Predict the 3D structure of the following.
Amino acid sequence: MSINRIQFQPGLSMPDFLKHFGTEAQCEAALEQSRWPQGFVCPCCRATGASVFIVGSHKMFQCRACRHQISLTAGTLFQSTKLPLTTWFLAIYLISQAKTGLSALALKRYLGVKYPTAWLIQHKLMQAMSERETTYTLTNRTG
């Protein structure tokens, strides 16, 4: 009997995850790369140059052309969060690695947050995953 390739596909181990996303700076760099793969692009004027400021605990970008300001987390599910990005990234990792799902109570224990916070994180992530899935359509249907 052959092994189930889906079940034994390579994944990201916890030590590898922590090596890549264990610090706030690493998470910010990953988020910045994900938002602007070719570098900052102003959402107002589409210019590419920006000045970077640290406001509170997150980066703020100011367009050099129109002076529009946008934070690194604006327009993302991390917007207006008081939690560190490391907590969010760990939640994403834990939820994505759980084969049968992860309860808000278990997430609360893993993240060290209160239950309402864990519930909100879980539901925001599930909503984002659901919205992403709606962009995929089935093709080549027979029948």
